[in-house]
């Protein structure tokens, strides 16, 4: 046991002369190194905190202002217009402070005040500039003169070396759209899904809402937008995620896959070690704020708020609502293998464990032959089942003794690692390989992932890896950012020996990982089994299909002068119509991170323009020229809606917040109730690729990510996640439910493939005629 190893470092004996205390020199060395590392970390954080706090100015600019003010005073010029003298008279009289000292101190205080005012002015100007969004609506490749001037000013005020959180204070707040705009856009979005009678009825209900109580609700919402940093995000996290009492496995959590074609080593312990070490490097940069903020066009900053809770974070279950617990400086990791929990320390002598040391620790776990304790194997199933039984079990059975200390070790860990005893990954010779890989990452065996942790790292016995992410704390681009860093660092910086082991010497003096101890009574084991059966029922019902579309990709689509996302969304509409013979309400996730603490907005992809195009594709009497014209019109409409969503002019988050206000005020709104009860039978999301550009895709075309996915949102619908990889590959992750007779994920994947080819054919025919 590690605790036992540490205990022998301090020994004492009682003698007639008193107590003889013996201290281990090695332990004292480690204590000293840990202290040095801790103070160094604090110093770096303080320095970076100052740099972020005064951005876009710099600490050196304060010195320049002070010198300038002092110089003018020696030239007998008073730039303060008497303020320095007033400060001087306000200073406490002291015999140790001469008149000259008082004058100098007064000048420094004035210069500091002037410098701080200058910082606030720069931030205000930058915030005003970042509130300009006309640039996003301009045609690709065409930039107006006003936008060029705007870009130059933003670049000028953005400074040279921003840290991760440098722009947070300069980001604008998410604006509240007008009621008229939201209602108008909503009615436009449902028009293709309703017949004339249904639409007329919806218009009446919407207009009644617009008259009353919409103005009253809007006033309260605007008041919140002035007071809060973001009028949506806190309610979105609470009511969409944390108050949900259904299982989060499949229904909320999402997954991210490894590199598609490459496995850098087949040694499970070595791959886990390199990846964990890369994650620790990323966490260090994150905690110090040293990561470069993501910027659109390389200039317009995105909000970095969601990164804060990536590590050391757990969703804690409650009876009515859960809460997110975030801690700092967690120095251990919990590893699950063959039904047993192990605690692994991540630091040694004040530094991160090297990959070779981590490999040794993980190999020790793999070689451990001990058996699970009663109730231990399926314990994580509590996090996969309904939230209320888990919350009650936590209060009753995990509130004292070894159970409490072991659960605390899990919930305070940096993250959760599963050393899986299965092999997964993409196999070109097995058409089901991606499907099984996706299901394993999404739900596993329902008891080998701790679904409440911010993320679970899963390492398979063949060296393949993946991540399962809890959704309440952040959205997929955030975990994707970390994942890109980790996979690139693993393959191109850390590397492996010829035998597949981690590089570096092995330190065998490390204390081995410690088993977590449990005392789980029979009554609790029955609750665990109940949660497992519920989770297993959900997992067994998930129908997954991974579809690699490599006939063409982003490169060819761009040659058609079309947005790749619009192209794919229209293909999904065509596939949906062919699959079910009807259109449905479609959800596409868009980000609102140009605003402070922004998360997502909905793009309603099923439009009158897209349905007209789809019908034309299925009508033999329509010419290809007509179809192409309708396609371009639908694609332009989709792009415009996406841009509106990104710039805070979406529909659904506004209506959602109005609904929350109505509930708090006790106002019943038939319109809002109907809007929020409409099922999303086609839920889609694009996984971002190459946020960091750490891998040269031209040099290393095989090192491409496979993307990730999520479970079906509606019982009779599809969930589709896609990633545009490089120039010639698009990967689709399709989910549905076996229990629905209307859906079949493989069939839908085939429909998507054919829809993509059919749309491409329109441009081919045009090229031939030209």
Automatic annotation (TrEMBL):
<dbReference type="InterPro" id="IPR023213">
    <property type="entry name" value="CAT-like_dom_sf"/>
</dbReference>
<keyword id="KW-0012">Acyltransferase</keyword>
<comment type="similarity">
    <text>Belongs to the carnitine/choline acetyltransferase family.</text>
</comment>
<dbReference type="InterPro" id="IPR042231">
    <property type="entry name" value="Cho/carn_acyl_trans_2"/>
</dbReference>
<dbReference type="GO" id="GO:0005741">
    <property type="term" value="C:mitochondrial outer membrane"/>
</dbReference>
<protein>
    <recommendedName>
        <fullName>Carnitine O-palmitoyltransferase 1, muscle isoform</fullName>
        <ecNumber>2.3.1.21</ecNumber>
    </recommendedName>
</protein>
<keyword id="KW-1133">Transmembrane helix</keyword>
<keyword id="KW-0813">Transport</keyword>
<dbReference type="GO" id="GO:0006631">
    <property type="term" value="P:fatty acid metabolic process"/>
</dbReference>
<dbReference type="Pfam" id="PF16484">
    <property type="entry name" value="CPT_N"/>
</dbReference>
<dbReference type="Pfam" id="PF00755">
    <property type="entry name" value="Carn_acyltransf"/>
</dbReference>
<dbReference type="GO" id="GO:0009437">
    <property type="term" value="P:carnitine metabolic process"/>
</dbReference>
<keyword id="KW-0443">Lipid metabolism</keyword>
<keyword id="KW-0496">Mitochondrion</keyword>
<comment type="function">
    <text>Catalyzes the transfer of the acyl group of long-chain fatty acid-CoA conjugates onto carnitine, an essential step for the mitochondrial uptake of long-chain fatty acids and their subsequent beta-oxidation in the mitochondrion.</text>
</comment>
<keyword id="KW-0808">Transferase</keyword>
<dbReference type="GO" id="GO:0015909">
    <property type="term" value="P:long-chain fatty acid transport"/>
</dbReference>
<dbReference type="InterPro" id="IPR039551">
    <property type="entry name" value="Cho/carn_acyl_trans"/>
</dbReference>
<keyword id="KW-0472">Membrane</keyword>
<dbReference type="InterPro" id="IPR032476">
    <property type="entry name" value="CPT_N"/>
</dbReference>
<dbReference type="GO" id="GO:0004095">
    <property type="term" value="F:carnitine O-palmitoyltransferase activity"/>
</dbReference>
<dbReference type="InterPro" id="IPR000542">
    <property type="entry name" value="Carn_acyl_trans"/>
</dbReference>
<keyword id="KW-0812">Transmembrane</keyword>
<keyword id="KW-0276">Fatty acid metabolism</keyword>
<comment type="pathway">
    <text>Lipid metabolism; fatty acid beta-oxidation.</text>
</comment>
<keyword id="KW-1000">Mitochondrion outer membrane</keyword>
């Amino acid at each position: 046991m590690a605790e036992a190893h540490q205990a022998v470092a301090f020994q004492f004996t009682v003698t007639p002369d008193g107590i003889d205390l013996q201290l281990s020199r090695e332990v004292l060395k480690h204590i000293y190194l840990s202290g040095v590392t801790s103070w160094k970390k604090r110093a770096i954080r303080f320095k970076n905190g100052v740099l972020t706090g005064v951005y876009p100015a710099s600490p050196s600019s304060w010195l320049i202002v002070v010198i300038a003010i002092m110089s003018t005073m020696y030239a007998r010029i008073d730039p303060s217009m008497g303020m320095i003298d007033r400060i001087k008279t306000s200073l406490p009289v002291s015999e140790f402070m001469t008149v000259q000292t008082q004058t100098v101190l007064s000048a420094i205080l004035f210069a500091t005040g002037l410098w701080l005012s200058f910082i606030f002015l720069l931030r205000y100007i930058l915030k005003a500039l970042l509130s300009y969004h006309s640039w996003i609506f301009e045609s690709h490749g065409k930039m107006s003169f006003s936008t060029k001037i705007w870009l130059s000013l933003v670049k000028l005020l953005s400074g040279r070396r921003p840290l991760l959180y440098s722009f947070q204070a300069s980001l604008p707040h998410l604006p509240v759209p007008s009621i008229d705009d939201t209602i108008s856009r909503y009615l436009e979005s449902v028009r293709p899904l309703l017949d004339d009678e249904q639409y007329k009825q919806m218009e009446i209900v919407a207009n009644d809402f617009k008259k009353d109580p919409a103005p009253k609700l809007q006033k309260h919402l605007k008041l919140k937008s002035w007071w809060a940093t973001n009028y949506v995000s806190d309610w979105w996290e609470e009511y969409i995620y944390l108050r949900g009492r259904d299982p989060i496995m499949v229904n909320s959590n999402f997954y991210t896959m490894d590199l598609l074609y490459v496995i850098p080593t087949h040694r499970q312990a070595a791959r886990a070690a390199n990846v964990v070490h890369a994650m620790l490097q990323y966490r260090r940069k994150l905690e110090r704020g040293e990561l470069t903020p993501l910027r659109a066009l390389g200039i317009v900053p995105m909000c970095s708020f969601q990164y804060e809770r990536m590590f050391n974070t757990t969703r804690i279950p409650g009876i009515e609502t859960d809460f997110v617990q975030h801690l700092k400086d967690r120095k251990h990791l919990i590893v699950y293998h063959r039904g047993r929990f192990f605690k692994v320390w991540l630091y040694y002598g004040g530094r991160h464990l090297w990959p070779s040391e981590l490999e040794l620790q993980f190999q020790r776990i793999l070689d451990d032959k001990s058996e699970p304790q009663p109730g231990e194997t399926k314990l994580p199933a509590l996090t996969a089942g309904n939230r209320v039984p888990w919350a009650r079990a936590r209060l009753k059975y995990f509130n004292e003794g070894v159970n409490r200390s072991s659960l605390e070790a899990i919930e305070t860990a940096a993250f959760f690692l599963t050393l899986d005893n299965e092999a997964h990954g993409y196999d070109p010779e097995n058409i089901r390989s991606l499907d099984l890989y996706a299901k394993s990452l999404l739900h596993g065996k329902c008891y080998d992932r701790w679904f409440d942790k911010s993320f679970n790292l899963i390492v398979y016995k063949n060296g393949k890896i993946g991540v399962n992410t809890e959704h309440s704390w952040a959205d997929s681009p955030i975990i994707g950012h970390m994942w890109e860093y980790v996979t690139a660092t693993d393959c191109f910086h850390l590397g492996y020996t010829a035998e597949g082991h981690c590089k570096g010497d092995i330190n065998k003096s490390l204390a081995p990982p410690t088993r977590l101890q449990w005392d789980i009574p029979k009554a609790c084991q029955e609750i665990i089994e109940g949660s497992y059966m519920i989770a297993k029922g959900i997992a067994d019902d998930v129908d997954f299909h991974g579809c690699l579309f490599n006939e063409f990709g982003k490169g060819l689509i761009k040659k058609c002068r079309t947005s790749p996302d619009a192209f794919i969304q229209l293909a999904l509409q065509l596939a949906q119509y062919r699959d079910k013979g009807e259109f449905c309400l479609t959800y596409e996730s868009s980000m609102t991170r140009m605003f402070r603490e922004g998360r997502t907005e909905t793009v309603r992809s099923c439009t009158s323009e897209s349905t007209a195009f789809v019908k034309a594709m299925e009508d033999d009497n329509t010419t290809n020229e007509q179809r192409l014209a309708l396609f371009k019109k639908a694609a332009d409409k989709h792009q415009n809606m996406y841009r509106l969503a990104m710039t805070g002019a979406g529909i659904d988050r506004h209506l959602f917040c109005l609904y929350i206000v109505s509930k708090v005020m006790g106002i019943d709104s038939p319109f809002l109730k109907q809007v929020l009860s409409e099922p999303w039978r086609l839920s889609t999301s694009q996984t971002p690729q190459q946020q960091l550009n750490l891998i040269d895709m031209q040099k290393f075309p095989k090192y491409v990510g496979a993307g990730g996915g999520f479970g079906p949102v509606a019982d009779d619908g599809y969930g589709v996640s896609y990633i545009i990889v490089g120039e010639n590959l698009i990967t689709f992750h399709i989910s549905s439910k076996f229990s629905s007779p209307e859906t079949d994920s493989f069939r839908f994947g085939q429909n998507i493939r054919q829809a993509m080819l059919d749309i491409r054919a329109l441009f081919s025919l045009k090229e031939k005629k030209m």
